[in-house]
Structures are given as structure tokens and as C-alpha cells.
Amino acid sequence: MTLLITGAAGAIGTRLAADLAAQGVPLRLLDLRHPDAPAPPGAEFVRADLRDQGAVEAATAGISAVVHLAGLTHEGPFAAMVEHNITGTHHVLEAARRQRVPRVVLASSHHVTGMDPVGGPELLAPDSFYAVSKAAAESLGQLYAHKTGIEVVAVRIGSYRDRPSEPRHRATWLSPRDATTLLYAAATRPLPARFLTVYGTSGNSECWWPRTGWDALGYRPADNASQHPETGPLTDHHTGGAFADHELPA
């Protein structure tokens, strides 16, 4: 079973590739730029731009599942979000359809509900153009799951850090080793439905979001932000933190 990781030169992709390669998982790594470090032993690196449908389709040949991490990860102009996050995700899903890849894992974001008040109901409430692009990517995943039969898991990633570094991370933190466990489970475990959305956090005692889907994936996080009380008490009004407070880019 060979996994394709897009965005393999990023922080999550680099750690995920190293962890899975150490477990003997065959990997193909895709990014627009070369990683800072050599690819792990046994992993194949492909330099490709997700805006190039043909290149994405070629990179997807013979793959068992895709973990799609590539794209812009911070707020920016709307056109850039469409180009990289929405069009790029469409190209990945379309390549999976054409190459008959059975499973795609989409790196979504907790910011798709970032304007929700802390303690309020969980509603789709994007806090930025970035979050809108992730909500659109989730919708594309649903469409492809319903129309083509591809299984899709959208992981709404929290705050990926080596350790919590600010108060809101008491709720949102996702440790590197828990990220590896969750993303690999999302790529390989049997699903209860063709489309599944899960929040990607560690087992934080003060987490704001439901753990729906964790049992289906067999996800048992090893870390908890409460192990790092030095971050101080939670003070956020919106679950998106600073993203919810910033003005939209011009």
C-alpha cells in the first residue's frame, strides 16, 4: 500500500513522512519545492505543482490513498486561496477519480468554524478567506464521495505544534505524533460512510469540539494539552482565535 503525501515539504508532511517511513509504509512525496532534508529511505519524491492537473494525475498513478496537505496555510488574498486551496484540491480529487484511488484524506482546518463563539454550538462559520477555501475543499470532498464513490476524510486540523505555546492551545493543540496517528488512520481504516469529517486535535481535556469519528478511525491520542499548564487559562471569545479578530485582506 503506497501513500501519496502532498505538501510533503511542509511541517506536517515532513514529520508524517518520517514517521510512516520508519514504520515501513511505502510513500510517494509531492511538493512544489524540494524538502529541506532528503526524503526518508524508501520514499519517492515528486516535484509537482497542484495547479497542473496532468502532473497531479501522473503522481497519483498506482497510489492506494492520498493524504492531501498541500496548499496555503495562512490568510491571504481570496484569488490565491482559490488557486492553491480550492483548485489544487479539485485537481487531487479528480486525479484520484481518474486513477481509481479509493481514499483521499483532506487537510481541512478548525477555522471553518472559527467564528463560532467559545461554548456555543458547532456551526459552519469560516473566519477568513483561508477558512472559506477549506470549507470549499470539504464540499468538493463530499461531492466526489457522493458522485464517484471515492472515500474522503476531512480532518479539521487544530493547532499543530511540538507543544502548546498559548492559552487557546489548551483546546486546539494537535501534537506531531497524534497527527501522524490520526492521518494514517484516516488513510487506512475502514469508514462508516464514504465521507467523514473529524476534528484533528490531541486528547485535550478542554477541547471545544466533538470527537465524532474518532472511534470509527480507532484514533486514541497520546497527548493532552493539560500536561502543559504553563500556557495559562483560556480567554478566547471565538474558536478561531486571532483569525476571527483580523480584518479581511484588501
Protein model, in words:
The protein is an alpha/beta fold and 250 residues long. It has a single domain (3-245), classed as NAD(P)-binding Rossmann-like Domain (Rossmann fold, 3-Layer(aba) Sandwich). The chain has eight helices and nine strands. It has helices spanning 11-22, 53-60, 78-98, 129-148, 169-172, 176-188, 214-217, 242-245; strands spanning 3-6, 27-31, 44-47, 65-68, 103-109, 151-157, 159-160, 173-174, 195-200. The strands form two sheets. It has a seven-stranded parallel β-sheet, with helices on both faces. A two-stranded parallel ribbon has the order 7-8. Helix 3 (78-98) links the parallel strand 4 (65-68) and strand 5 (103-109). The mean pLDDT is 95.
Key structural traits:
single chain; 250 residues; alpha/beta; Rossmann fold; seven-stranded parallel β-sheet; two-stranded parallel ribbon; 9 strands; 16% strand; globular
